[in-house]
Specification:
The complex is a heterotrimer of chains A (482), B (442) and C (250).
Chain A lengths: L4 H7 L14 E3 L6 H10 L4 H16 L22 E3 L14 H9 L13 E7 L2 E5 L2 H6 L3 E4 H7 L1 H7 L10 H9 L4 E5 L8 E7 L10 E6 L4 E9 L6 E4 L2 E6 L4 E8 L11 E12 L5 E8 L4 E4 L2 E4 L5 E10 L4 E4 L2 E4 L5 E11 L3 E10 L7 E11 L4 E10 L5 E10 L2 H9 L4 H17 L4 H14 L6
Helix pairs in contact in A: 1-10, 1-11, 2-3, 3-8, 6-7, 9-10, 10-11
Chain B lengths: L1 H19 L2 H17 L15 H4 L14 H8 L7 E6 L2 E8 L8 E4 H7 L1 H7 L9 H8 L4 E6 L9 E7 L7 E2 L2 E6 L4 E10 L6 E10 L4 E9 L5 E10 L4 E8 L4 E10 L5 E10 L4 E10 L5 E10 L4 E10 L7 E10 L5 E10 L5 E9 L3 H9 L4 H17 L5 H13 L4 H5 L4
Parallel strand pairs in B: 1-5, 4-7, 5-8, 6-9, 7-9, 8-10, 9-11, 10-12, 11-13, 12-14, 13-15, 14-16, 15-17, 16-18, 17-19, 18-20
Antiparallel strand pairs in B: 1-2, 3-4
Chain C lengths: L1 E10 L2 E11 L4 E5 L6 H9 L4 E10 L2 E2 L5 H6 L2 E4 L6 E5 H15 L7 H12 L6 H4 L2 E2 L5 H15 L3 E5 L7 H13 L6 E6 L12 E6 L2 E6 L1 H10 L2 H8 L1
Helix pairs in contact in C: 6-7
The chains are: A alpha/beta (482), B alpha/beta (442), C alpha/beta (250).
């Protein structure tokens, strides 16, 4: 997979290129949070009573919880009463039945993002669910997926069409009261994607969700639930963008993955929420709880993430390795520039026998940004023959940024083998000079070197995403050198 | 629980202030106990104490020891002495200095080496200028030590003075007095180009419960050099908390070796600040836990100036139900360009009930740096084990040999031969087939 | 001396040896040849008793004793020696003292008094000449920092000191240049006698130019499919393994 550096060059723009705002009539509830708002959301979505109860329980938990303060993340307090917890593009009462009914302006928005929803224009083999502010607006390739028995739809739809599956698995990986933001999400989540792969089925195409925050003063609280039944396989991609706004917006999502016996889930993220401007004004607070449960024997969950956006990213996609011989993987590139802050990493909890995990993390810091890897590898007492390998590398560009590594390793079993390595480096002047002497511009040289630094992670991404990820990297680091 | 313990130490201080003497220190102590009161004992909710619960040591109201000599101290002293080592020797029994057991003759001119209590009487300004700077977020045990400051060592080495003969500080504890606390405070001040080797050796009886809360402050001026050994061989029922604070000026060098073999609950903190260009530090450590021992090593190195260097290598061997904790933090501050920091921590888990929690940390705010860390948790290498067995060596011996070889990597770095040999003897003595494997040392 | 009958061995549930028969008498040198993955090293490891090799069927009789279930160190004391294909480095463990412990463990087993330091040193001095091993290597950690050739020579040196009844040389020729190969071969040849049997496990016949075997066996897919004399090895070198395979299949 060759890097086309001239692509990066053409893409380089000073400004966040997804920063447009779609002027669309939307149905937005007034800012504020109380039980009435939750009941309103639930009613709006025509939810069964048990789900409303579940939300309220989470909300009451949340009220008791203390907002976390993280040592290496700094931001002014969030006023949770100043956020609108529901915003939906206004449509006919029942929502769009097909793409033809979707507001053309919305479709235009996705065109601008490079995500055409018209099926004929789609990249072959990728089914897309698009979430606009709080609601899912369209899901493509539904019929083809249905033929394979795969359920892929918006979360709201799943609640109506497959309540038994939702009820069985919702909150089974990330309990409603897991942490402050997960509890908040459980109380107010509005939509998201749901995916079920039946037994012994290889999902015939990549599944993809695009998230976009559009309305101002809204938070986005989507919820994704993916269940891979015995012997199944799915590759799922997630992308995110938001318009440029002066104020900070909150994104507090929850992603739950369940892999049963011999099942395998590959979850890839390219996160490009609005990072704020060069002065650090505005941008998304991306506080996300992602967790995969390797519940069955020989199951495998692989997280790959490229985090280039958001003012603050706080997320630790994790794996509970419960099934014997299960495998957890985490491949991450986190890029921060200007005043961005990223505190990201993973948790690998080894519970079953012969479980294995691999962590490859690449952090790149530029400008005044702070970038921290925080990870936990826990080998529980019963996890015989557990293996972990971790490699964390940081690349610093400029002398005003920070790069930090905080790995926690807890081993309680004498057959455990855990290996952690970390390095920190900068782009060498000699490397740059070498490239430039061969006629490559400094910017291209930096891109080449950074792409090389991230190669181990990019190769885990599906092809289309890998290309996009490389481009994003170039855009994010624009102006970081020289 | 913890509050009761805090109050105990407060009233202890008030009870003993007069007895301890040194009026000019009363204020210092008073201020420290005040700070300690607001800090309290650390809890596992604090990041720095996440894996070490100090509640066991707060459950016993340790008092300062009664003065007076223990009966069989000679035998214990011989046990603590390093065969073949020519040294200046200061001996503390149950935390109190023993002038009659100590010998410091033949020191170069202008070198000061004396018990802190005496030094405090003689030179007030010096002491006050050195102590009392522990800020609010410092370790509460450090503060507690300051609150009870009395015995310990003042070692001051003048400019250009190189002391060839090592200074051996022996702390014998727990031979008669049940339930005492000792708060030894050592101050090592090296002027420009000075050089010295200091050995702190903590030896205790297994059958008594006591609490050693030691602090050593080292101040290194330009181009001075300190080689420091800490041999922690406290009794199996004891609690040992140690803080080693190091301030380094330009081109100064510190070589620290910390070996922890004894104690039931042990915590060693080393905090080094490399404050000027060219300062270098090398930290080495070995911790071996058996039974239910809990041994925690925390190190923090602050690179505050350009072109400073740190090296760290710690190894742990955990058997039975022992628990080892390692936390090595390296902070490269803004503008500390050309910092070169490398750290490694390796652990051997030999029993299914043993545990290791390790956390190497890098916090970096400068870009032209070379930093790395690596940590491993594992077992004896199966291929090595098979190789030895295929050469007719039985399995248990082979295990001992390989365990020793793992620990040896730290011991072999010790330049001072008597210390190295003493440790080889001590470490091997903890393993099965000790006699056999003694020969294997490279 | 060694009598292997219908030996089946699995590694990680995969069958590697599938009914191997082999008889080796005292004083004989046998060469086991075969392509990669045929099971040569498995045979060597099974004889030395490495963990992870499960005998599912068949038997190994050594001097009238059943080897299966015997600990590796007991086999070593009984006189079995394995020269490893990849001798492991053991940092911190002194080469010469490891060997002294080995010698004395064996002597104790057969009821002889241990050698004292002087006796042992004389033994070492005598044997080290056999393989022209630099004496400075003796005092290093086991194999640590040795070149490939030095490691192999160290193995033969250990063999000379331990005087085994049955020596298995696992690919001892691999990675050696021609001079080193000659030295190793001379060392081995000097250790040939009528009480000792040697099994040479090798990929190439090159070694057999220097150590002439009494018998040559071709191991393929876990079985010995052809046995013969010295000429068989030459023919293998000339024609490759395919003709034996097709002949065996026929």
């Amino acid at each position: 997979m060759a890097t086309k550096t001239h692509d990066v060059e053409t893409l380089v723009k000073k400004e966040y290129e997804h920063g447009f705002f779609t002027d669309i009539e939307s149905d937005t509830v007034a800012p504020g949070l109380n039980e009435d708002v939750i009941a309103f959301i639930s009613r709006k979505k025509n939810e069964p009573d048990w789900l409303l109860e579940w939300r309220l329980k989470a909300y009451r938990h949340w009220l008791e919880m203390e907002e976390p303060r993280w040592a290496h993340v700094h931001y002014p307090p969030i006023d949770f009463q100043d956020i609108s917890y529901y915003s939906a593009p206004k449509t006919k009462q029942d929502g769009p039945k097909s793409l033809d009914e979707v507001d053309p302006k919305l479709l235009e928005t996705y065109e601008k993002l490079g995500i055409p929803l018209h099926e004929q224009k789609l990249l072959a083999g990728v089914a897309v669910d698009a979430v606009f502010d709080s609601v899912s607006v369209a899901t493509t390739f539904k019929e083809k997926l249905a033929d394979a028995g795969v359920i892929f739809c918006s979360f709201s739809e799943a609640v109506q069409e497959h309540p038994e599956l939702v009820r069985q698995y919702l909150g089974s990986v990330v309990p409603a009261a897991d942490n402050f933001y997960a509890a908040l999400n459980s109380a107010v989540f509005t939509d998201g994607s749901f995916c079920y792969i039946p037994k012994n089925t290889r999902c015939p195409m990549e599944l993809s969700t695009y998230f976009r925050i559009n309305a101002s003063k809204t938070g986005q609280f989507e919820r994704t639930l993916i269940v891979a039944d015995e012997g199944s396989y799915v590759s799922y991609l997630e992308g995110c963008t938001a318009p440029m706004r002066d104020e900070n917006q909150l994104h507090a999502a929850v992603v739950e993955l369940v892999a049963l016996d011999n099942a395998s889930i590959k979850y890839s993220t390219v996160q490009n929420w609005y990072p704020g401007d060069e002065e650090g004004k505005g941008g998304i607070y991306n506080f996300v709880t992602k967790r995969g449960d390797c519940r069955g024997v020989n199951s495998r969950i692989s997280w790959t993430q490229v985090e280039t956006g958001s003012a603050i990213t706080w997320k630790y996609p994790s794996c509970l390795l419960k099934g014997d011989n299960s495998v957890g993987e985490f491949y991450s590139v986190a890029v921060t520039n200007n005043y961005q802050q990223a505190d990201t990493g993973t948790k690998m909890i080894h519970i079953g026998k012969n479980t294995r995990s691999t962590i490859i993390s690449k952090g790149i810091s530029a400008g005044h940004a702070e970038n921290a890897y925080r990870g936990l590898v826990r080998i529980t007492a019963k996890a015989e023959n557990a293996r972990n390998y971790t490699q964390c590398d940081s690349l610093l560009m400029g002398d005003k940024c920070g790069a930090h590594t905080f790995p926690y390793i807890e081993a309680k079993n004498a057959s455990a083998q855990v290996e952690h390595e970390a390095t920190t480096s900068k782009i060498g002047d000699d490397q740059l000079f070498y490239c430039m002497q061969r006629g490559i511009s400094e910017e291209d040289a930096v891109n080449m070197i950074v792409n090389g630094f991230c190669k181990e992670v990019f190769k885990e991404l599906p092809m289309e995403f890998a290309v996009e990820a490389q481009k994003l990297l170039g855009v994010t680091l624009e102006g970081a050198v020289g | 629980m913890s509050d009761t313990a805090v109050n105990h130490y407060v009233s202890e201080l008030h009870r003993l202030q007069k007895e301890m003497g040194c009026d000019n220190l009363a204020r210092l102590r008073e201020a420290a106990i005040g700070r300690f009161q607001s800090q309290g004992f650390p809890s596992t909710r604090q990041e720095n104490w996440k894996y070490t619960d100090v509640r066991p040591l707060t459950r016993m109201p340790f008092s300062l020891p009664e003065t007076g000599m223990v009966a069989d101290h000679e035998a214990w002293l011989n046990e603590a002495r390093l065969p073949g080592l020519d040294c200046h020797e200061l001996v503390f029994v149950n935390g109190r200095f023993s002038a009659e057991l100590s010998r410091t003759d033949g020191l170069p001119e202008y070198v000061v080496l004396k018990n802190l209590a005496v030094a405090l009487e003689e030179d007030r300004t010096l002491i006050e200028s050195l102590i009392g700077e522990d800020n609010a977020d410092s370790n509460p045990f450090n503060t507690l030590n300051t609150a009870f400051i009395l015995d310990g060592v003042l070692l001051s080495v003048p400019t250009d003075c190189i002391i060839d003969i090592p200074v051996h500080l022996i702390y014998l504890s727990g031979f008669s007095d049940e339930g005492f606390a000792a708060h030894p405070r050592n101050i090592i001040a090296l002027e420009a180009n000075a050089s010295v080797t200091v050995i702190e050796n903590y030896v205790g009886a297994d059958n008594s419960r006591y609490f050693t809360n030691t602090v050593t402050d080292a101040f290194l001026q330009e181009n001075s050099s300190l080689t420091h050994y800490k041999l922690q061989q406290e009794g199996r029922g004891s609690y040992h908390i140690g803080n080693f604070n190091i301030l380094q000026a330009a081109s100064s060098r510190v070589y620290s070796h910390s070996i922890s073999l004894g104690g039931s609950l042990v915590r060693n903190d080393i905090h080094a600040e490399l404050k000027a260009e060219g300062a270098e530090i090398a930290l080495q450590g070995l911790y071996m836990g058996t039974g239910k021992q809990h041994i925690d090593n925390h190190t923090r190195i602050d690179h505050l100036s350009p072109s400073t260097q740190s090296r760290e290598n710690y190894r742990g061997v955990l058997n039975d139900q022992a628990r080892g904790v390692f936390n090595g933090k390296v902070v490269v501050h803004k503008d500390a360009q050309k910092t070169d920091a490398a750290q490694s921590n390796a652990n051997l888990l030999l029993s299914d009930f043993a545990e290791v929690d390790t956390k190497p940390e890098l916090e970096i705010y400068a870009d032209d740096v070379k930093c790395s860390h690596g940590t491993t948790v594992g077992q004896l290498d199966q291929d090595m084990l098979f190789y030895l067995r295929s050469r007719a060596i039985d399995e248990e011996t082979a295990r001992s040999i390989l365990t020793y070889a793992f620990a040896e990597e730290i011991i072999t770095q010790i330049d001072l031969q008597p210390v190295r040999e003493y440790l080889e003897y001590r470490v091997i003595g903890r393993l099965p087939d000790a006699d056999l494997i003694k020969e294997f040392t490279v | 001396m060694l009598n292997i009958k219908n030996l089946h061995v699995t590694v990680d549930d995969k069958e590697i040896l599938k009914g191997l028969d082999l008889t080796v008498n005292a004083g004989e040198v046998h060469a086991i040849m075969g392509p990669n993955g045929s099971g040569k090293s498995t045979l060597a490891n099974v004889l030395a008793g490495r963990e992870g090799y499960t005998i599912t069927k068949g038997s190994i009789d050594y001097e009238g004793k059943d080897l299966s279930g015997m600990a590796p160190e007991v086999r070593a004391r009984e006189g079995i020696f394995l020269a490893f294909q990849y001798p492991v480095e053991i940092p911190g463990v002194n080469n010469i003292y490891m060997l002294k412990a080995a010698v004395n463990a064996k002597r104790e087993y057969i009821g002889e008094p241990p050698l004292d330091a002087v006796e042992f040193l004389n033994l070492v001095k005598e044997k080290v000449k056999l393989v022209k091993l630099k004496e400075e290597l003796l005092n290093r950690s086991v194999n640590e920092g040795f070149s490939g050739g030095e490691k192999k020579r160290n193995e033969i040196f250990q063999m000379a000191v331990l005087e085994p009844r049955l020596a298995i040389l696992d690919e001892t020729d691999s990675g050696l240049d021609i001079d080193a190969l000659k030295i190793v071969a001379e060392g081995v040849n000097s250790l040939r006698n009528r009480d000792r049997a040697i099994i040479l496990v090798t990929h190439y016949q090159r070694l057999l130019n220097y150590i002439v075997p009494d018998q040559v066996h071709v191991l393929f897919d876990g079985r010995i499919i052809k046995s013969g004399h010295r000429e068989l090895a030459l023919k293998l070198e000339e024609k490759g393994y395919d003709w034996v395979k097709s002949e065996a299949a026929a």
